[in-house]
């Protein structure tokens, strides 16, 4: 039994702990509760005569093994991602035009670990894919409905609605060659792959190939999963080359002529390269490995890989090597047991 003096000494500390817990609880509730647009400086900074604030909410954004607490602000033509500093003050992290965005449900391709499909979906914009994880299924459905509706409407207002897109084919046959396709703002990466294969006279389907992007914004090339819009990726680079103040207008009529050519600064250029998919190259190994692996290895190891170089030949997708038929200088027959590749490689 504690003495009366001991109980009196411990009372202040207990009161302090309870007060601290209440403060944290209030802070979390304040973070989750809707904000007042009129009292939020960040929202006010984006308001203009042709833009209306629609919705805001707390979300977890997951990419690879990373999870970040963020606050989303949806406008009629823009999505703003911010970090909460207090109930009404936020630090801007990024912003994306809705006409250049996409949604999907391939969460296992974007982040590692389990996600609740009832509360999550893939949210993306040029050079970015992430899993948006909401607090409830109802909140997820609300955001998904608003985003899909606004993305569709902004694409209908988009100008232009099609652009020439140069596709470079590499590691297909004995030489590299290219084709220029007319791509619309609703064509996915898989759609573009199929068009390119048809134009290039190559047999196969979208699962046999990957469309890679070489962007001046990134340190290394990266592959598209298949649901992204190459049109939006290209147009985001073109808009970045426009004079300041016009890149976020509703319908920029300046997007024509030289802006639709490759005459852009190096850091604003992007190229699209078609290469054989690792999944296609290793398809014959799936039957062997599926007994010991419950699911295929996630594409996240490629989609978020970043290397020191900027040349596609340095990317890990290449299926060629300096010594055909060999791995690390050894014959495949010498390192493969029962015709199976080593486990580390699988």
Automatic annotation (TrEMBL):
One of its GO terms (molecular function) is GTPase activator activity. InterPro entries: ARHGAP20_PH, ARHGAP20_RA, PH-like_dom_sf, RA_dom, Ubiquitin-like_domsf. It comes from the Eukaryota. Residues 161-279 form the Ras-associating domain. GO terms for biological process: signal transduction. Transmembrane segments: none annotated. PROSITE patterns: RA. Pfam families: RA, RHG20_PH. PANTHER family: RHO GTPASE-ACTIVATING PROTEIN 20 (PTHR23179:SF28), T-CELL ACTIVATION RHO GTPASE ACTIVATING PROTEIN-RELATED (PTHR23179). This is Rho GTPase-activating protein 20. The lineage of its organism: Eukaryota, Metazoa, Chordata, Craniata, Vertebrata.
